[in-house]
Amino acid sequence: MSPIPSRLVVRFSLLAVVLTGLAGSGAAQTAPNRANSPSQEEAVQLSVFTVSEEKEVGYESMQTTSGMRTAQELKNVASSISIMNSQLIEDLAAVDIGEMSKWFVTGEESPDPAQFNQLIFRGIRNSFALRNGWIWYSPMDSFTTERVELLRGPNAFLYGEADLGGANNQVTKRGLFTRNINRARVMLGDHEFRRGELDFNRRLGNKVAFRFAAAVSDNKSWVDHVGRQFHGFYGAVTYRPFRSTSVSVTADVSRSSTVVAQGLFIDQFSYTTGTNLTNSAGLIYLPATGALFRANGMRRSAGNGLTVVDPKITPRNFQVSGPEAINTDDYNTFNFELEQNIGKRLHLLFSGVLYFRNTDTKTIAAGRTIYRDLSPTLPSGVPNPNFNELYTEYFRLHNLHGNLLRAFRVSAVYDLITKWTKQQFIVNVQQQQDNPKHWQQGWGEYILPTHSSFVGTINPAQTYAAFIANRATMTNNRFFRRYYLKDGATERDVGTTAPLAGVSGYFPDLSNGVGAAGEQMMRRFYTPSIGVGASGSYFNNHFFTLLGYRRDHFNMKTTFGAPRPFENTWIVDPIPELNVYAPNSIPFAQYKVDGTNLGFVFRLNDTFALAYNRAQSFRISSGDGGLAYIIGRRQGMQTGEGEDISARFSLFGGRLEFNTTVYDNYQPNARISPGPSAAVLDEVSALFPTTFNRTGTDLQTTTTKGVEVEIVANLTRNWRLMLNGATNKVATTDRLPFLKSFQAEAKNSNQPTPLLDAFLLTLPDGVPNAGYTKTRANLFTRYTFSEGRLKGFFIGGGANWRQPTYRGNAVVIQGTPAVALWSPSYYVVTLLGGYQTKIFNRPTSLQLNISNLLDKEYYLSASTNSGSWGAPRSWRLTMTTDF
Asked: What gap in Å lies between CA 482 and CA 282, rounded to an integer?
């Protein structure tokens, strides 16, 4: 990646000077750290929709809005919610969600680099995150983050669509009336890590609070060619024109450019068998020598399809996609909130978001597999100099995409206070429109039709038949770049995404990105929803309840077309045959789903409480699935539900908070395509010719169970600590009900089904589901010396410990039975140290974080064919000053 533009650094520096001047003028009028309290001037009615920053001590956050979208005491909320606040984020020196998630009780970032920014909650990978309660697809950076709330388990009533395991909600910074902030931060680290941040908050009179934050970041990596560049600017204004009215506006303009590691490579070389290549193997180009040849007729090895974890074969830092394989995410957001209190009991909130996102991804396809070259000669007949050598290859892609999200929500809260109870009733009405930018270009690198290696012909007609024929033709003319491991992967060989002059070019990706259903010319979906809920307290705050119901609708329209098969030409023509109802191509889709929530907290006293919560989840945007084995049936919409039971302790006057949760969540209709052999399909089709769909799919139940423990301690004013841990097991039950219904019907008719019986025995109930970690634990602490010779110094650190993660069953050695595979257990130690002082009478701190202090070598993997190496020892130095 190219360095951050100098003009951006100049603007950032000028901005720092301007803010320094503002801070100086503001300091002459107000106290440097704490603004005049609203109680000293005009009384302001506290917001029921916003968490108070006064409710945070050390690593402990005592309020949340994720229980019912209103600010509530976390200890009295039935839902399972964890919070990482800004103090812990700062002590960890974390700058993105991946670094933060290592310390979550659950919700760690997926170890598959292709799924970066996606977290795994309770063994279930989530598909997207939330930001201020709205859906969020872009990377999450710490410079805008006030806190991260983890919604563990099903939570459809709160935020609608989500995965079974839970979701993370980033709460961004707001304009504050409670204090002024004039903070600058510089961070340096190894692998050329450098970052600058500004955070500026000013209360302007009694009615306006203004906040501005900015960040510029640039770093490389210990992995070849990998790195990240980021810059972002964020503003927030809170305006209180009247005692009962508050307006909050936030805006964000950011850009993230990342070269992602490829992760662990895949073994297709360890078997004694091999594969004869056909035209679909395309034209092979060797950047190391410049050689070109068609792969048709050549032979390569086969393997077990498992990740390669021997660094003698592929070094830990190995990456062949190159420095130009950049994933760029440009996003602009605008949030608006208008809160109006009518009297003391009725509270209204009108909120909305505009989220503009454009992505530009230069990536590769089929680029992590290692083969052995089994061809003793080249197609020309000359000896193959790379015979029996290991290699990897890929063809390049260039995709433009993004989203345009527009949404609004109206919330009404009424407080009912009687002699016996306090009730808070809430109604939420929401409309969300998301326009994924599927119509944008999707390119692949192919052989030029004018080159002698091109096979077949392109049909320029814009008909359905021509579209199908052109897909087949382009599949046979992909341009592959091959790298033999003995040659390495220097930037000279992997450093360009440009086509090879006179040989290759970029065409619409008909063989890969554009499926048989066509290219989406337009996709727009609306998800209106309505929810009602009630949160109550009884018996002098000894019993708390939560009831919620929500209905979501999903209305989607999609138009399909066929891209013209020409170089550097992106014109998509509508094709009538692509816009009819088909199993995997539905122009119009309409679904609805309900979600409920029931919970209560029984608080014996300030020290001990018990909580129970039962909730549901759903994935409405994934539709009603594929066609089932039973003709006329589909898989149905994916739903989930489950219960959490918690015990909560508050000891030593609240200085030690201890929570433990036992959960049992399940998805009764998880999708599966079991893939029976043709012989099995023939057997069932012969018995049930009118009711059996041989291309169908089936279902199973996925269950995730475990225990989560969280401890947050502020044992003294100078010592804070957090400790969490969790157990987890994900298993499948009630498998293949559609196929088993044919088995049962045949048995009732005395019709033998030996092949089907044998196949079903290979998919028994109780089999673990890949991706869950048996046991995990995290510890982090900090102690500050407040007196004596060490006054101002602080020390701390922590550790991440993981037991094995289940990866799935696979055949490791050719000809032997499949066995269960687990990634190894590991622990990583982190060290923290620093010093707080004043420089030119400005509070300043120096902080050093060392990650993986013992330089442990380990890998992470949540499946048999993906994963990544753990990062080696690294350091990060942070200087923060309040100017």
From this structure: 11
